[in-house]
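Here is an idea for our session: we take a single protein and study its fold together. Once you have written the record down, we can walk along the chain together.
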Amino acid sequence: MRGIFEKDPGRASAKFNYMLSPRVFQRRSVVLLAVLAVFGFGLLISSARLRERCEESGYCGFAQLSPSLAALGDPYRDHDQNNSMPAHAGKPAAANPEPSAGSECASFPDTSNVLLVMKTGASEAFGKIPNQLMTNLKCLPEFYLFGDMAQKVAGYTIHDSLDTVLPEVTRNNEDFDLYFRQKTCPVDQGSCNKHHDVGRQAWKLDKYKNIHMAEKTYAMRPDYDWYLFVDADTYVVWPTLLKWLEQLDPDEPHYIGSVAYVGYVPFAHGGSGYLVSQATMSKLFKGQDKVANRWDQRVTRECCGDFVFALALKNETDTDVRNAWPTINGEKPHTLPYAKKEWCQPIVTMHHAGAEEVSELYAFEKERDFSYPMRIKDLYHRFVKDQLMARRDDWDNLSDNVFYLNSSAYEYLDWEKKKAKTENLSALEMLAHESFDDCRRACHSLPECLQFRFYHGICAISHTIKHGHPTKQEPYQHWRFMSGWNVKRIEEWVEEHDDCGEVEFPIEDSWLSL
C-alpha cells in the first residue's frame, strides 16, 4: 500500500497532482467515523456532568453569563434601539442589569434626583476614571464625564467640553496647545505627553471647561433637582449628601460649596465640588443660547474656571455662593484637620484622593452598609487613629499653629516668621527650635499642643490633629522633616469630644424662614 495519497503522473489533472485511493479511503472513513462517534459521546457525558455541577453549586459559565453579557449590549452605541431618547453619557448606552438583592448596590441610596458631573482631562483620564467607575460611580443610575477630548474609557463616554469654545479664543492661544496636540496623538496620551510639561499645560486648559460642561449638561439633562460638579480625584459620600438634600429645596436658587477667594470675590472651589440647584441651572441656561461663549474671552484673563463659573452665576442670575465647609471639603482623611469645629460635622466630599484612597473610602462605606451620615470623626477613627506615634521621621504632619525659630540663625520665609511666637516664651519654648527632642518637650509643656514637627530649625506645634504625608529623606539632618504626636493627650481629647449628638448640616432652607 502506497498510502492514502497515490501519486499517478499519468492520470493526474493539471490542477491536482494527487489522487485519493478508493480502497484506503473506505477503510479510513470507517475509522474516522468511529473516532467521531466516541468523541461526541464523551461531550454528551461531560455536558451532563457540568449541568449537574452548575445546579449544585450555583456557579456556571456561559449558561448564566450570556444573558448578562447580552444585556450590556454595545457600549459604543449612542442610542438605545428600543428608545428614541438618547442614552445617558456616563453609563454604557444599553442599561446594565438592576442591582440584585445580594449586590452591594442594593443598600445604596436613591440618587435619581442628583446628577453627578465629573471633570477630567485626556492626560489623566485613564489614571483616575477607571477606579471611580469601580467604586464611587458604580451604583449611580446616571452620571456625566467631561474632559478636553472625546474619549472612551472602558466603554464609558467622556465628552469634549471645549469643542464649543469660540474659535477666536482657541486660535493662537497657547492655553490650547495641549488640546490640539492630543487630538493628533497616534498612540496613548501618556507617550505623546512624555516630553511636554503636561501638568502645566493641562492646568492652563482646565479653566475653560467649567461653564461649558455645565451648559452642555443642562442641555442634555435639564430636569434634575440637583447637579453636583466634582473633579476626577474627588470622593463623594452619597448617603450623607442625600440626607442633607432632604433639608434643601431645589426650587430655591442654590450654589453651594467650599468657599475660596480670588481677591475679595468668593467662589466655590471646584476640586471640593459644588452643588447647583435646578432653580439656579434653569435661571442660567433655560431659554438661553451660547451662555458659555459669553464668558470665553473672560476666562483667558482669569486663573480658574470655577471662579469664572461663580462670576457667571452672579452676573447672569444674581446667585451668590454659600459656604458649606467643612462638609464640602478640599482635604482627605490624612490631611483633614481634626478639631472641635470639624469633629462632629458631616462630610460629603473630599479632594485629592488617589486611586488607593478612593478604594479605601469606598470599602469603608460598604462596611457601613452605606449608612448615613458620615462624620469627620468617623474618618479619624478609621484612617488616622492607629497611625499616630511619638515620632515619625521623614514625615510632615502639617503642624502649623505656632512656630518657634531663631530668625538670626537662618533665613526664613515671611509667612514662617509671621507664625513665630517671639514674646512671653517659657524656658522650654525658648529652646524648642534647637532639636526634635526640644520641640517635643515644648509641646508637652503646652496644654493645647496635640502634635508637632521639626524641620530646618523650626519647631511647629498644632492645636488640631492631623496625620500628614511622607517627605523626601534629606541627606542633612537639619533639613529633615520629623513629626511627633502626643498620643495620650490626643486620646483624652477624642474621648472628651466623641459624643456628637444629632447631625447638623451646614445649610438648611428652614434657616431662611426664621
Summary: The longest strand covers residues 114-119. DSSP finds 20 helices and 21 strands in the chain. The two ends are 108 Å apart (CA to CA).
